[in-house]
Amino acid sequence: MWIDDPTFKDCVNNSWNKWTGPGTPQFVFYTKLKRLKHDLIAWNKNVFGSLSLRVSNAEKDLLNVENTLDNGLPIEPPTKLLDAKVKFHNALLAEESFWRQKSRISWLKEGERNTSFFHTSTKVRHATNRIHSLKIGPTITSDEKEIKDAILNHFVSSYEATHSPIDIKLLDVVPKIITPHDNALLLAIPSKAEIESITFSLKSSSAPGPDGFSGYFYHACWDIIQDDLVLAIQDFFRDRQILKAANTTFLALIPKCPHPNLVKDFRPISLCNLWYKIMSKIIARRMATLLDKLILPQQVAYVPGRSFLTTFAWPMNLLIG
């Protein structure tokens, strides 16, 4: 919705190019995103305001012009009717775009206006995603604070690190498969072309992380943010340290069963910031080129060029041969 407005990129450009002060490239990029978020909130309030009110006012203006013409009265300027129709049409498109993004539905591409459908889908999704009650011990509670505390305690205890002693001598018997050339490939500073390729390979409509910026923003504003983004990601590979703000995530709980009532009935997934996803995918794509030599031939999953059919082919060959 925002991206289609002609003043959107002006707002992004003005905010992005303000001086941010000294800092590492990662800190500068994070600071610019944080400031831009506040600037876009103010811009949205001034430009769009309430979408439903905007649609209502545009419709009233159009009806007033049409009533004037029906009564045989002149209008000034002559394009007033066309302007009113365009204004009303754009308001409807903005409202539909807003509810489409809120509903997270991407499979419905064409047809008549689907605002009510997207609105209903959003309400249903919110109602479905909300945890109304939870069984904690022998009792079932609907208290929001008790539910939050139970979920937090469960995952803290599940993912809390345990400090077990490790015998470093064990590393002496682990074969060294990664060559210096492979290691150099994994640690190489990514080029701008590699970062751009990874950025545009990520889905634009995926849910944003804590910073609030989805792939839509990165794709639409690449010409504005590209230099700072490239420097930030190269800084991560160069110093091998990631800014804490980049590594923050939202944990979304996905039900494992139709009617979950225990904490263990939910599966957590991470909603990461997109520039963190870019760093991760660069590493993952590089590691993928080495999986064939790291994973035994008997393991047929997750390796390009191998097939599950191989699992059946081996015993068949043994039986035939």
What would your notes on this structure say?
There is one protein chain. This protein is mainly α and 321 residues long. The protein folds into 3 domains: 1-43 and 174-289, no CATH class; 50-130, no CATH class; 134-160, no CATH class. Helix content is 56%, strand content 6%. The longest helix is centred in the N-terminal third of the chain and has 24 residues, at 80-103. The radius of gyration is 27 Å and the shape is extended. The termini are far apart. InterPro entries: DNA/RNA_pol_sf, Retrotransposon-Effector_Assoc. It comes from Acorus calamus (Sweet flag). This is Reverse transcriptase domain-containing protein.
Secondary structure elements and pairings:
Blueprint (H helix, E strand, L loop, with lengths): L7 H9 L8 H23 L3 H20 L9 H24 L11 H15 L4 E3 L2 E3 L2 H16 L20 H8 L4 H10 L13 H6 L1 H18 L9 E7 L10 E7 L1 H15 L2 H4 L14 H12 L1
Antiparallel strand pairs: 1-2, 3-4
Short description:
The protein has 321 residues and is mainly alpha-helical.
Overall mean pLDDT: 81
Shape call: extended
The profile of the biggest β sheet is:
2 strands, antiparallel
Strand content: 5-15%
Distance between the termini: 64 Å
Order of helices and strands: HHHHHEEHHHHHEEHHH
Contiguous low-pLDDT stretches (5 residues minimum) are none
